[in-house]
Amino acid sequence: MSASIRSEGVSHAAAESGGHASTGDPLLAVEDLAVHFFARSGLLRRVGSRLRAVDGVSLSLAAGETLGLVGESGCGKSTTALAIMRLVQPTSGRIVFNGRDLAGYSRAQLRDVRRGIQMVFQDPHASLNPRLRVGASIAEPLQIHGNGDRAAVRTRVVELLEMVGLDRVHADRFPHQFSGGQLQRVGIARALALDPQLLVLDEPVSALDVSIQAQVITLLQDLQAELGLAYLFISHDLSVVRHVCDRVAVMYLGRIVEQGDRASIYRRPSHPYTQSLLSAVPRPDPRRRGATGRIVLTGDLPTAVDPPSGCRFRTRCWKAEQLCAEDSPELVDRLGEGTLSACHFAETLTFDHKL
Ligand SMILES: Nc1ncnc2c1ncn2[C@@H]1O[C@H](COP(=O)(O)OP(=O)(O)OP(=O)(O)O)[C@@H](O)[C@H]1O
Ligand code: SF4
Ligand SMILES: [Mg+2]
Questions:
Q1: Mutation probe of ligand 2 site: the residue of 345, 348, 350 with most atoms within 8 A of C-beta
Q2: Cα–Cα dist 70/73, whole Å
């Protein structure tokens, strides 16, 4: 390991406590985050409206833990991730990392913070420069942050390649010479270059073959145990989320509708939308596979340009009542068990699709 590059000063509380620090201030706290897009052309401009991609998202993440962010396509998962990275500009809200509110940060200050938060994208082909040898891609963040001379950078690149199960010879190859799984390992190595505390993983295995997915997930778990990393793990695959996450946040049309411990959410989901998602997950136990319980959603699919009044899920919800149209339910602990739910009728829900 090259001491000149690895930031020894970074306090990895989770690593010191066996990777499960969950007390004290969160590593990341997102508070009432909104990202609205205003189109310069096309339909949005014609109707003069805004697209509320993210519209009041709050979530928190402790050092060393994995929070799963799930929800159907277009609900705002990637936009949330990009706003946390400040790759898109939040419309409002707070992003507090290590106790520091990033909202008013200048570009230079953000660059410093970015050492601590790195992102891995779904498609490694798209996220790496095809004309750069992968060693150069991995070295880029080190060079941008002025970490060490050429020899030190080379040593760190080799170390990073080995950390993700690749070999030093891979440094001199181009992206097209790698398989999808290998290339995602390169993406992870690049994200680890500056010794971050948090990785934002946006569908990190969705583009990979199922057999390769398991290998990359195992790698992520090993790295987390070794380095005490926290993960914001974005996925639409609830089987994968169940396997890797400590806590889960469920997103619907720009908002979090349920958030809690993985075990509690999978045992007793307290929002109808979570119930519908879980009811579609195949059961691993063959004796239960035949049992029905699948919730098929009907009703109008709303848009983020013109979301429904009150509860945003009400146009598809089989439990909806008049109150749901009038009053937007807060995300609060409704069952007294620690899980937060944004459903007025959380206490009355039953669920019989146990996994
Ligand atoms: N740059 C942009 N300009 C305008 N609208 C955008 C932009 N980026 C995202 N959107 C819109 O914001 C909404 C949320 O998109 P986002 O990509 O965050 O969803 P997602 O949950 O990541 O979906 P997926 O599961 O398909 O990746 C969508 O309606 C999308 O069309
Ligand atoms: S608040 Fe009403 S519409 Fe919303 S999820 Fe609960 S029952 Fe359904
Ligand atoms: Mg996305």
A1: 345
A2: 9
Ligand 2 pocket check for 343: Cβ under 6 Å: yes
Angle separating helix axes 150-163 and 180-192, nearest 10 degrees: 130
Pairing of strands 117-120, 198-202: parallel
Q: Which residues of the chain have pLDDT under 50?
A: 1-22
90's tokens: 């939040």
- In three-state secondary structure terms, 90 is coil
- The domain spans of the chain are 270-355
The size of the chain, in residues, is 355
Distance in angstroms (rounded) separating the CA atoms of residues 171 and 135: 4
- Euclidean distance between CA atoms 119 and 294, whole angstroms: 34
CA of 73 to the centre of ligand 1 (A): 8
User: Which ligand places an atom closest to the C-alpha of 237?
Assistant: 1
Question: What does the pLDDT read at residue 293?
Answer: 74
Alpha-carbon torsion 332, 268, 60, 82, what sign?
negative
Tell me the C-alpha distance between 345 and 335, whole Å: 10
- Per-residue confidence (pLDDT) for residue 40, from 0 to 100: 66
Q: 226 — alpha (psi -120 to 50), left (phi > 0) or beta?
A: alpha
Could you tell me which of 285, 278, 282 has the C-alpha nearest to residue 263?
278
Question: Which two tokens mark 194?
Answer: 């500056």
